[in-house]
Amino acid sequence: MTFEIAFVLIVILAMLICLIKEIARPDFIVFFTLAVLLLSGIVSPVDALKGFSNDGMLTVALLFIVAGAVKQSGMLNQLVTKALGSGQNQRMSLLQMVIPISSLSAFLNNTPIVVMFTPVIRKWCKERNIAPSKFLIPLSYATIFGGTLTLIGTSTNLVIHGFMREHGMEGFSMFQLAVVSLPASLIGIIYMVTIGYKILPIRKTSEESFDEGAREYLSEAFIEPHSPLIGKTIEEAGLRNLQGLYLIEMIRNGERTAAVPSYIKLREHDQLIFTGVLSTIVELQNIKGLRVETGINLKLEDLQNGSASLVEAVVSHQSSLIQKTVKENKFRSKYGAGIVAVHRNDERINNKVGDIVLKPGDTLLLLGNKDFLNRWSNSRDFYLISPIKDPEIIDSRKSIITGATLVIMILLAAFNIFTMFEASLLAVITLFLTKTITFEGARKYIQFDVLLLIACAIGIGIALEQTGAAALIADYFIQWTKGFGAIGAITIVYFITTLFTEVITNNAAAVLMFPISLAMANQLSIDPMAFFVSIAIAASASFATPIGYQTNLIVYGPGGYRFSDYLKIGIPLNILYLIVTVVIVYFVWVV
Q1: pTM here?
Q2: Which of 61, 288, 363, 396 ranks highest by number of CB atoms within 10 Å?
Q3: What are the structural domains of the chain?
Q4: Per-residue pLDDT at 389 exceeds 60
Q5: Are 480 and 492 in contact (CB under 8 A)?
Q6: What per-residue string of b and e applies to 72-105 under the rule 16 or more CB within 10 Å gives b?
Q7: How far apart are the first and last CA of the chain?
């Protein structure tokens, strides 16, 4: 083993540990890793920057815009509600939901589909007295099923496609992955409506848990007549840095102010709403001129009216909020909303809100002004599980243009008239020229953190390949599976990829495994497509944890799930996907 190989392996091992421990955002960790390899001379600037011109990465960026236009057009608003039906036969409703969702996610980004339909499904379940926990994990899994069906189903497929083209190969065709993923998806759907449905728990949603426990963490106080607090700001009155309580709202003459600024001066009869640890309420009671109401029965609905609204938000993997307390994040002043409560692993965190260290998957109950949803609907820090509003007026012209553009883009790529990059570029130009989407609107939908992660991960993959580290690892893998031949090699590649996907990110897993798989294919003298298809399926087929795939994370809190729920339901599904993929890949590309 040379020094260069050892150095690369140590750096990548450190990167994996940092990703697993979530010490920072994934895109920053991967960017820092690439920077270390560049500055140490392991990769040249040209090779380090290759990922930023990779057509797979650029296609992902363009498809973000196309998916954003579809979401913005309102085309999908009523689809799932109609598909679910009456709900009298829950398994049939589940099947009727999974099929169209899988079909949509074959051509659109999975994340906005899950964000869009989570509140729709929760509302549908609530109206029929059905536990949403029976439908939300299947919603996430359905998008994963669909994402593996086509070249554009997930960014991972496009990343591998781009890597293949960098190496002078043709890349995937539009429906090439469906040879494996369609049978696997059908088996997955059958599993979910039979065994999976039975295993799915019946749980209260985070919304129900917040509402039922409101009395345990909400309290209110009033500024008494002639109080010495009158004329003082919130800060001067000592109401900003209380030991266990957090001021979330002030009501004055019927007008509500959410995310109360420190500089607001108090007046007689102001009503103040606090959240936090009620055992510390004595701190409020000791403030002269402040009358604290105890034994009240405040409900969440009491906190909102025309000027304030409650919204649920799920902290994302890419969030700048993670590993810092709410107070350190200056959440209230940064976002213009107060955190009422935090839900994690099927229970509310019973601490002062300002002292809670946020983690990916935490569900935040936010109280903000009415424009909060519009301002932060595309935030990278959290996914907003928006309340259901009355249907908006849909612009039929934009819907028709968007739908036609999407179909034409798919056909152009499917029949090899254009490459996927060219077809998606043409689609975006069409959307701009027809004013279906604006440049400002497009910018909101592009996930720059995902693009940075992909581009940097490609540079790391090049370092693995050029130093010989990938060939060394490939040799070890082949030795481990020597008695099982090609089928053993494919199995180990699939298993390691899916393991990486569960603990780091799917794109990083795919990029790291690509050069290793290419080296294995060369050493075994078999078609590398066998490995690339396996990696593409394994990197997306993430069912066993809520942290492995972002759609699993989105439904984690809103469904009231525990980490163990994903293990019980997802591990058998992971095994099914592994068996189906390895068998079909072996007989199609190896034998």
Answers
A1: 0.88
A2: 363
A3: 206-387 (3.30.70.1450)
A4: no
A5: yes
A6: bbbbbeebbeeebeebeebeebbbbbbbbbbebb
A7: 34
